Amino acid sequence: MSTFWSGWVIILTLIFLAIMIVVVAYYWKKNSAANANRTVDSFDGIDENDAGVPNLLLLSYLLAFIIAAVFLVLYPGMGNWQGLMKWQSSSEAASTSPTSLAKQISQVPNGDTSFQALSTSPEVVVAGRALFQTHCAACHLNQAQGQLHFPNLSDAVWLYGGSDEAIHHSIVKGRNGVMAGWKDILTEEEIENVSYYVASLEKNRIISEPAVKLELGKTVFDANCTACHGSNAKGNTAIGAPNLTDNIWLHDGSVEGIISTVKYGLNNLMPAFEEQLSDSEIQALGAYIRHQGNRQNEKLAALDPDMVSKGQYLAYAGDCIACHTGEGGEPFGGGLGFLTPFGTLYSTNISAHPTYGIGDYTYDEFYDALHKGKGKHGYLYPAMPYSSYQYVTDEDTQALWAYMQSLNFVNTRNEENKMMFPSNIRLGLLGWNIAFLNTDPLQYPADATEQWKRGKYLTMGLGHCSECHTPRNVAQALIEKELFQGNLIDGWKAPNITATELYQDRWDVKTLTDFLKTGHSDKGTAFGGMAEVVQNSTRFLTEQDVAAISEYLITGDKYNELDRSVPQLNPPGFGDLVPANVDIQTVELKPLSSNDPENEAKLYGLYVQTCGACHGKDGKGRKGIAPTLLNNGIIMHSDPYDTIAVTIRGLSPNFMEQDSNFMPMSSFNSVISDANLAKLISFVRNKLGDRTVPVTLEEVAGVRRDLIKGGYAGNIHATTTPEQNQPNSVIE
After folding, report:
1. Backbone angles phi, psi at 226, to 5 degrees
2. CATH code, domain carrying 646
3. Distance between CA atoms of 454 and 631, rounded to whole angstroms?
4. Backbone phi, psi, residue 626, to 5°
5. Which of 2, 144, 24, 26 is nearest to 79 (CA)?
6. Is 504 domain-assigned?
7. pLDDT at residue 532 is higher than 70
8. What residues does the Cytochrome c domain cover (predicted)?
9. Distances in whole angstroms, Cα of residue 539 to Cα of each of 188, 400, 444
10. pLDDT by residue (tens digit) across 299-338?
11. Residue 698 has pLDDT above 50, yes or no
């Protein structure tokens, strides 16, 4: 502050203090002449007496004056006066003048002025932090952790290199990262293909697209992108072209975001500070950036590699990535929407980002979230399966914590939930926990094998199988006594997987283990949400752990007792209905009508015309085209819901194993009437699944209504309007 303005501040402050003294003295003197018994005015029957100002009030003013005067003498408050105590705020202390900062830098041992050496000086780091908060935090956030479009400066990944010279150049001269847009050069299909290919380069990201799409994308990449990003996509620090294989995304790393970047390009500007900062201040900034990097490195170095590896395995077992990754988004970045009867919930970012993720959680806070549904900022909705995760042991929780802390930062802000009142009041979830959260530990029978115990621990804990396969009450709490009896979710029926159902449908430990480990078995192929479970979770588990889960489910448990008195199914197949010389492609469909007997020949003709080309004339499937329907677990299942649903909505392949993938299944939504669909499914379930109870027209219509309401009917997982979903009875 200039001397002129400093003088004015001092004068005005002294005048204000003098006025305070005058006011107190005036009223103190006036009090001596006051007479509380004398009436000075009356109005509407109310008398105003000549009472003095309370002495307590005057004494309070006097005390305030004394405190203010003492403070202004001892501490800064009047212009440039620093006070007798020579006190400074932390920000003022940090905002060291260039001259004193240069002196502090010169006092670093051995005269080493590298950013790493300067980062060991507390004084220089404090000054650098203050400068960073002033000039850099708006973009890179207060701990240099970065955010969308602005890089994390505390990790070991640098667009232009992490040397002192490169960092110094960035601060002094700024950077202008430019990527050209390709919308006028590449076709929409080429942009989409190359975007999926780039996304597939990221470790741990599951891309459910056919191999040919990724191969076409690589062709586009090789022809157009390698000049900047290199043939191995590792980037080029000389021009700031990022490494596309390191799981770190400066800009939006979702497939949609990558498509936008490729299509429209980017222009990322960092301003130059050479006119604003002195050389000493630039050195202090570099020291602070190194200091933050050292802190992050120390944090990662403190993690036990074995615990991190174990935690990664447990995260696979818990299928964390499936829920905490948005559609096409970055792993663990959150943003996946869950439609509930009370509104829409969005999964949160659980990367190690200290602002958007859980990087600033303590272990105890992480434990409470996982086991008690109590997050750092409030109670969690039970869409987070803490009712199952509460069974995770302390040792496994610590391993999970270590792995989560090792994750890269994901710069994705958490979506705001859209819950209706009063469901949006999180405190109410405490009442939900009190009413519905069963905190009893898992019980193991005395005669249970170690494998069975392991299977129960994984199934009921991290695997949280009951969360999808068990019905819920109106409060969305699991109905414990109906464990594994099936539940409608995302337009599919998570099937009844009770021991009795599995026994009747002739599942055994081997077929169930194959199914969970690969997504394929003699009992069919995983699809829908279960395919995602295999993709993201069970295929990464050991054969022994998957077999343990299978043994637990097949054997049964409390509320899931195995009833061996139920007869096992034995599908007869099509038998003599399969002509040896039938050309499936040219079979003529015989019309069905309501008054025509449903003879097997006509029903088989309907099957051949609609299903036989892919699933085979014998229903045993065709390799690389469609799975078997004979002995298929869904065809044999007591509930025909999914069989009906798959014919109406179609099915997208999961692309889990390229050698055993199947083609997409088209929707028969507008191809076959509900009446004929009921007859066809009844016939197929009888011959290929040994189910004798016919599927009714009402059941088909009911499933169709569910799918239309959810937007699943027609096309493959496409949302359509109810008008588009009305059946067009081509086959009558």
Report:
1. -70, -25
2. 1.10.760.10
3. 29
4. -155, 150
5. 2
6. yes
7. yes
8. 123-202, 212-293, 306-408, 450-557, 595-688
9. 34, 19, 26
10. 999 999 999 999 999 999 999 998 998 888 888 999 988 8
11. yes
Whether residue 102 is contained in a domain is answered as no
Residue 92 has pLDDT above 60, yes or no: no
Per the prediction, the chain carries an average pLDDT of 85
Q: Measure the CA–CA gap between 243 and 697, rounded to whole angstroms.
A: 56
pTM more than 0.90: no
Beta-bridge partner residues of 557: 560
Residues in the chain, total: 732
Looking at the structure, tell me whether residues 271 and 125 fall in a common domain. Answer: yes
Q: Are 644 and 685 in contact (CB under 8 A)?
A: no
What long-range pairs does 338-342 form, CB within 8 A, spacing at least 24?
A: 338/383, 340/381, 340/383, 340/419, 340/476, 341/474, 341/476, 342/419, 342/420, 342/423, 342/476
> Which phi and psi (to 5°) does residue 241 adopt?
-80, 120
558 and 620 belong to one structural domain: no
Residue for token digits 């069970």? 538
Q: Decide the pairing of beta strands 266-270 and 175-179.
A: antiparallel
Q: How far apart are CA 532 and CA 336, in angstroms?
A: 14
Residues 450 and 469 in one domain: yes
What is the rounded CA–CA span in Å between residue 694 and residue 690?
Answer: 11
Please check whether residues 435 and 491 belong to one and the same domain: no
Choose one of 520, 553, 568: the last residue of a domain: 568
Cα distances from 595 to residues 28, 117, 592, 604, 681, in angstroms, run 111, 92, 8, 18, 19
Partners of 493 in beta bridges: 488
pLDDT at position 718 over 60: no
Residue 632 in tokens: 């298929």
> How many domains does the chain divide into?
5
Same domain, 140 and 269: yes
**How far is C-alpha 256 from the chain's CA centre?**
16
Q: 555 lies in which domain range?
A: 442-568
